[in-house]
Amino acid sequence: MLLPSLLLLTLRMVCQVLAVDYEMLIDDPDVFADCLENPPGAKGASGLFNLDELTFTLNGDKIHVEGNVTTVWDVEPTDRITASARLMQLDRGIWQPTVFSIATQDFCALMYDKDQYWFKYWTRYVEDMDAMKSKCVNHKGTKLVHSPFDINMVLSNVRGTTLHGRYKIVVTLEAFDDEKNVKRPESICMEIIGDCERL
User: The pTM is what?
Assistant: First the structure.
């Protein structure tokens, strides 16, 4: 019994030692770009939010964010919103999928969930979060007021794969009318492009 326990402990320690942190250095100070391979009916970040009151300032390897966004996506407040984010790698001129992705079938239920990546990088900075929890990106005209924050895209404790080179995060949002079981024709697709480096 002691030998298997020691072996398990040793393997666990080796796995922890082999874990690596990576940082994605975003090269566009506006952060979001429209998807290069836009699905039919998809709009970019400006189809989701009015960004006129939001400023991005490139500060070394971080992007400083200040201001507000107002939702402009023309869907119904009762629509269910699905969301996904996929990390793609540029390999010989072609964007290839990686093993890293997240998705939810009900983004609004998880928009302010502290265990989600978007909370870590975005929604935790929304002021008056308790009042905003009843709103989502499907409530046109909702203003999200942000406390100033820095975007520092770090992937922690990555095991089993090496990240080096050109990458992009493809974010898609789709709205569904669950009563009619119909997907709305207008969706959102945006990309964050940069280089990954080992920390």
Answer: 0.83
